Amino acid sequence: xxxxxRALLALAVACTASGAGAQQDYPNKPIRxxxxxxxxxxxxxxxxxxxxxxxxxxxxxxVVDNKPGxxxxxxxxxxxxxxxxxxxxxxGTIGIHAAYASYKKxxxxxxxELQPVMIFGExxxxxxxxxxxxxxxxxxLHADVKANPGKINYAxxxxxxxxxxxTALYELMxxxxxxxxxYKGSGPALIDLMGGQVTVMFDNMSSSMPxxxxxxxxxxxxxxxxxxxxxxxVPTIAxxxxxxxxxxxxxxxxxPRSTPxxxxxxxxxxxxxxxxxxxxxxxxxxxxxxxTPNSPEQAANYFRTETVKWNxxxxxxxxxxx
Length: 322
Hints:
Layout: H1 2-24, E1 31-35, H2 42-58, E2 62-66, H3 73-80, E3 88-93, H4 94-97, H5 110-113, E4 114-130, H6 138-147, E5 153-156, H7 162-174, E6 179-182, H8 186-194, E7 200-204, H9 205-214, E8 217-222, E9 248-256, H10 261-275, H11 278-286, H12 296-317
Parallel strand pairs: 1-2, 1-3, 5-6, 5-7
Antiparallel strand pairs: 3-9, 4-7, 4-8, 4-9
Helix pairs in contact: 2-10, 7-12
């Protein structure tokens, strides 16, 4: 028995040393960063910033791999089923981590098969219309939507995406109904919005801001509880006819559930360091994104709180997407 105990102890020590060595050697090859939406949206913007900055720190290429579809679940499932070795990571969203109940037939379990490394940041969405739209204010839009249920269409970054969820929250709280036109990301949705193929979009501020600044889009309202410093003259939805309304978008760095805790902690430290530099912070502030450093545990707790919130919206709206 003593010989067996010594052998088991030696094996445990060897395994621990091997795991520590593997982590110290990480990364020793390129990393795949799955962005489960089309290029040019908020998730893609954040993914490319992280890829550039963290790749420089690691001395390895971080390849951004856009895998759009099913509100991000196509790409998220790829990550969930990948080895937990730190070489396949993902930019996650509300739709993946907290509003997945709108899909009843997913081939994976987001809560059980993915884990957060960190929450990148949070931003309000902004209600935007083309520059030549007849709607000058959100009150104008709201009155027309109320008077013509289902006749006004709106674009989203995909069914069940954060853009969709904040719009569904408006419909629920405002007692309104519009026609949903889903895309595979904010990039293609904004192209059609600016081209007049769709009427309105409750888009992520980061992807709409350049078009607002160029004059191609008009901002009618922000979805946060208070006005945003980047758009101080743009009122909130709550100010504009829907009292109590508030909803924001957030993005994560996530990994397969099987990723060791020590590696998750390392990724959290390194990603936090590069995403909170003055250069990156200023870049993100211009896009309306606020970065707040957080631990994997804090992110997981936030997921649970947000899941309760968005499940209420999904249930009340009878939102089923498959």
